[in-house]
Amino acid sequence: MKKSLLALSLGLTAGLIGTSVFANTGTIKFEGKITSSTCPIQIVNPEDGQVGDLVKMGSVDSSRFTAAGQEHGGKRFALRVSGDPGCNITAGSVANTTFNGTADPTGSYFAVTPGLDGAKNVVISLRDKLGASIAPGAASADYDLNVGTTTDLEFNAYYRSTATAVTAGAASADVQFIVAIN
Fold this sequence. Notes:
By secondary structure, this protein is mainly beta. The protein has one helix at residues 2-21, and strands at residues 41-44, 71-81, 94-101, 110-111, 122-127, 143-144, 151-161, 175-181. The protein has one domain (41-181): Immunoglobulin-like (Sandwich), CATH 2.60.40. It has a 5-stranded antiparallel β-sheet with strand order 1-2-7-5-4, with no helix packed on it. A 3-stranded antiparallel β-sheet has the order 6-3-8, with no helix packed on it. It is flat and about 50 Å long.
């Protein structure tokens, strides 16, 4: 009996040692992008000329929204395309902008960041120079570009109600953009 217990304990020990010798495999994913952007683009507040990546929408009283589809609190902003030689802007060049971010359930507007203190029943609507709404992933109207100098591609952002009652709270969104120069 002692022999079999000893054999069993040696077998368990060998089994445990054996499992630590085997190597496990896995996968590492690398993510990134190589770009060729040589054309600087800045986000500009046209009213005071300040440059930065923040468009201050300000505050809108929730009681102003009395029906779905109302827009309030418009804020103008511009994407300034440099006139640098690297932009390859020639006579007749145009640019359009595609905005990407979290879409609302309709896919037409940008969802505000959810949270415990987040506003409800409101989205952010972006409009181009023609006043046309720009859905997430869709291109804006074309803007004519100036040769050898900067061009401001002006847009407007609004809070848009998605229901009759808008609940007060933080209403922010992160939106990326791509400017295509043709």
